[in-house]
Design goal:
The complex is a heterodimer of chains A (184) and B (171).
Chain A (H helix, E strand, L loop, with lengths): L5 E3 L1 H13 L6 H12 L10 H9 L6 E6 L12 E12 L3 E11 L8 H15 L4 E7 L3 H8 L4 E2 H5 L1 E7 H9 L2
Parallel strand pairs in A: 4-5
Antiparallel strand pairs in A: 1-2, 2-3, 3-4
Chain B lengths: L4 E4 L5 H14 L10 H9 L6 E6 L12 E12 L3 E11 L8 H15 L4 E7 L3 H8 L4 E2 H5 L1 E7 H9 L2
Parallel strand pairs in B: 4-5
Antiparallel strand pairs in B: 1-2, 2-3, 3-4
Classes of the chains: A alpha+beta (184), B alpha+beta (171).
Chain lengths: 184, 171
């Protein structure tokens, strides 16, 4: 397939988002794609983020995340109504030994569009962003059961830090944070 | 008994922050891997767009450390984003100098971080711990931490600069 793909960054995403919202029954774009990804992981009921949150958090004075989207023109849509067919969400983190890192949070291409190198293009765009922003590397987490993704990343030189260095990801949830903040 | 205060780090604190970062790295036998400079810390933490935030623990002069320091602990954190629930507080580094441990300074720091997380509407606090670091794991578990790597199978991956450059050059 010839590549009709357009990869857009934050600025374009905001415009796309606005355009969508000005329509009557338009798709909540990024939110819909996130819902689809959650559905794919059978976790839809865990998505509590709203379009409003995404707009405030991503396009306010201080963006908490950035997005790259893959957009196809109407003539090439395989699924009616979807022009945005893939995306990656990322932000910058900080390693106290080496400085800025690019953290890849979410990465998805609609099933109908896989196998055409779109994922690779997105990753290439992200790599470029990382280098331009003087990041030492890109970090991300993958579920150990997700062999396909692990191989995809390993083919691109990714190393498993959990395996090599024993890192485990921990979480303290809101309930326990409230407990700690109230302690005397 | 240590009297101490906790406060937001200021630009003048970067040399102490770097000192403590190196001290913690030394504990992990990785001191020579710290390539960050005070200048980097200054630009990255106190410019228009801070890439990290710090809380420092300070003692009065009369209680300064053996080598003459009053900044005796710190925590470095930043905000991350979960696409299903939104903002999270990510605890990157957390250290109290050995001579000042056992006085509840660590707990106070964690309490302050928790308050920050709640105030900034974060759903939770995330951080990584090395699996062999039993004391730290216990410290966090006592405060309700759960091991997501164990429970959900998450593994941390890295693609280093060399491989990023390879990808940017691909056609």
């Amino acid at each position: 397939m010839e590549n009709p793909l357009h990869i857009k960054d934050d600025a374009d995403l905001k415009t796309l988002y606005k355009k969508q919202r000005n329509g009557r029954r338009e798709l909540p774009l990024l939110h819909k794609i996130l819902m689809e990804l959650a559905k794919y992981e059978e976790m839809e009921d865990q998505v509590i983020l709203t379009e409003k949150d995404l707009l405030e958090d991503g396009f306010g004075d201080h963006p908490f995340y950035h997005c790259v989207v893959a957009d196809v023109p109407v003539e090439h849509q395989k699924v009616e109504g979807y022009s945005v067919i893939g995306f990656a969400m990322y932000y910058f983190t900080y390693d106290p030994w080496i400085g800025k890192l690019l953290y890849l949070e979410d990465f998805y291409v609609m099933r109908e569009y896989r196998g055409f190198g779109i994922g690779s293009e997105i990753l290439k765009t992200l790599s470029d962003t990382a280098v331009k922003n003087r990041c030492s590397s890109m970090h991300f987490i993958v579920a150990e059961s997700n062999k396909a993704s692990i191989d995809f990343y390993k083919r691109r030189g990714a190393s498993d830090l959990s395996l090599q260095e024993g890192w485990r990801l921990f979480r303290i949830d809101k309930e326990n944070l409230l407990k700690m903040s109230a302690e005397e | 008994m240590a009297n101490f205060i906790l406060r937001k780090a200021e630009p003048k604190d970067v040399s102490d922050i770097l000192r403590l970062i190196k001290e913690l790295a030394k504990f992990e036998e990785m001191e020579d891997q710290v390539i960050l400079t005070e200048k980097d810390l200054l630009e990255d933490g106190f410019g228009d767009h801070p890439f990290y935030h710090c809380i420092v623990a300070e003692v009065p002069k009369q209680q300064q450390s053996a080598d003459g320091h009053v900044i005796i602990g710190f925590a470095m954190y930043y905000f991350t984003y979960d696409p299903w629930i939104g903002k999270l507080l990510y605890l990157e580094d957390f250290y109290v100098m050995k001579e000042y441990r056992g006085f509840g300074i660590g707990s106070e720091i964690l309490k302050k971080l928790s308050q920050t997380a709640v105030r900034t509407r974060c759903s939770s606090m995330h951080f990584i711990v090395a699996e062999w670091n039993k004391p730290s794991i216990e410290f966090y578990k006592r405060r309700g931490a759960s091991d997501l790597s164990l429970e959900e199978g998450w593994r941390l991956f890295k693609i280093d600069k060399q491989n990023l450059l390879k990808m940017t050059n691909e056609e």
